[in-house]
Predict the structure of alcohol dehydrogenase (NADP(+)).
Amino acid sequence: MTTENRTSTAGPTTVTAWAAPSAKAPLERTTVERRALRPTDVRIEIKYAGICHSDIHQARDGWSEGIFPMVPGHEIAGVVTETGPEVTRFAVGDRVGVGCMVDSCRTCDNCRAGLEQYCFRGNIQTYNDRDKNGDRTYGGYSTHIVVDEAFTLRIPDGLSLDVAAPLLCAGITLYSPLAHWGAGPGKKVAVVGLGGLGHMGVKIAHAMGAEVTVLSQSLRKKDDGLRLGADHYYATSDEATFEQLAGSLDLIVSTVSAPLPLDKYLSLLKTDGAFVNVGAPEEPVSLNLFSVIAGRKSLAGSGIGGIRETQEMLDFCAEHGLGAEIELIRADQINEAYERVLGSDVRYRFVIDAATI
Ligand SMILES: [Zn+2]
Ligand SMILES: [Zn+2]
């Protein structure tokens, strides 16, 4: 089904999208403009878009002032339908993805080191942001997107586009800290929370060769956790968990946004272990610094990954046959899906079939 109203490449094109017209308002079908192709741009026909928890935060204005109407979506998988004259890395028909950012300054030390996610000048977010020329950015709940090839990822043939889409945020958010802190054979890694992020953490850490533990509030998803690759599964509501695992873990990656008793979690680490937050509560947290002094422990954070590392993650996932566990939905189910995400009623990622947009 083609929903693009104009196909001329001379100017901007009007495309169909689902947008929140204002903060907290339900998303509805509308149209937005995609820019005319710049020399290094590719036009992508979107096939699938994942629903990330942060889409809901932003569409409902939980984090900061949003730009409305807002088209969320930063887990995008599709196919290149057109390339600008200076594009060198992609051709029409290529399977591609777009994640959380669509540009950065490209000149600061972090950008030059492939850490565009930590661009000193702030990268440009795939949606709810403004481009270098001031135009609004619109995300993946749409039929098409125009993106610079430098921020476009290649999706290897071994990965289906539907299960690949969530890798562009959930996958890289877990891959990056697991790779940085050396998850691998001989390492004991715990993932806190088995949701959209956590389930990818379990799969990736297991594929990296680590011994994987899930720390979840209850044992409700234990069968899933073990099936996804966890070796152990503990309930954090059970005090015995913290006694049994004391001083045993090399790395803990927390995906939860609820405030955690950090001192208790840090007590689970070995000497030199690291506790890394990829989820964040909205309120500041408190910590007894002796929890890191004793045992030379690290309390750290991590956000998505750079473009080069995101490609490395996609190649790794293809090589190991890792995709997200998804529930495919129609675009007219987005609002219902948001409610279900808020109620933790999804195993493990909703993905919108863009043919229904
Ligand atoms: Zn996300
Ligand atoms: Zn930069």
Summary: The pocket of zinc ion (ligand 1) is lined by residues 52, 54, 74, 100, 169 (CB under 6 Å). The chain has a mean pLDDT of 95. The two ends are 10 Å apart (CA to CA). The first helix runs from residue 53 to 59.
